[in-house]
Amino acid sequence: MSLHKLAWTLPAKLHRTFPTFSIHSRLISTHHGVIQDVRGIMRKVPQPVVVVTTSKPDNIHDRRGITVSSFTSVSLEPDPLVSFCVRIPSRASELLHSSGNMVLNMLSHEQVQQSIAFSSPTSEQFKDIPFFDDPITGLPVLMGTVGAMHCQLFKVIELGDHELWIAKVLKVEQGVGGEHGKREESNPLLYYERAYRSIGDQVFMKAFEDDCEGSFNSIKWMHRAHLRMAWNYIRELGPDAAEPKIKQTLRSHFKRNPKKSQDYHETITSFYIALVSAAVRSYKGSEESDFFELVERFPQLLDAKTIDKYYSADKLYTDEARRAFVLPDIQPLPTHLQ
């Protein structure tokens, strides 16, 4: 029997001692409903994709970039102010605090690759990304953007698991060095009307799904990218409905990249779908977290030897296992992860 029903059946004296439970339950329910409503309406609001870049004052080679959320113009007078949000704790937050200065790069329609590069906490973010170091500030500026704002820290407010950065704009550069001289480079990269994801996952999934001509081979769609794609579909559709979608997406991807046509393996794919699903079930915060938190909590997702704990080589590396799913012979597929 629920607490709500129980409260109605208790004697009057006892009833007076329990009302907070019913009220608290309704408040939680209402709060959860508001969160879902906000998510729903924000899907319909187009927003620009912005990469904030910075570097250490005493070492310009210690650079960092981050694809941020909630970018907006705050005010124009007496000084132009803009804001953006940064997840904490993060290396980007630490470096921004260390520098106090940053460049806000407004990505163009053709810069999905840059969005992906700077939504991942890797040490080689700037590899193969066109940029230059500003001759005065030494800050990295991305090439091919709609424009860039050179900013200085005005105020930081910590809100939950994010920091709200308010920055003063010192200089604006319009259309920073287009790579191809095409009109499309002046159009901003936007996201909207998709299942709720972080900006990084929004553009990541767009790139993965739209990779019709293998144009993103340089990003190296390897194991980590496949896991991230699967994680997004599992969150959006649930494990059962996501499985055929994940497999269809991977088959199409391999087909469009002839050099990888021999890489698709039905049993390995099914195993990692089960592994990601188990991780999502095991982590209560997964609905509110991001992919990087998930792989940090469950490093076995990225460990190439994890599958060896479930399958022997004789069972896994066969034509039968490549063509169709076969059950593991060492231990059952995981349902939860430690």
Automatic annotation (TrEMBL):
InterPro entries in alphabetical order: Flavin_Rdtase-like_dom (IPR002563), NADH-dep_flavin_reductase (IPR050268), Split_barrel_FMN-bd (IPR012349)
Keyword annotations from UniProtKB, A to Z: Oxidoreductase
Cross-referenced SUPFAM superfamilies: FMN-binding split barrel (SSF50475)
Sequence ranges assigned to domain Flavin reductase like in this UniProt record: 42-198
Protein name: Flavin reductase like domain-containing protein
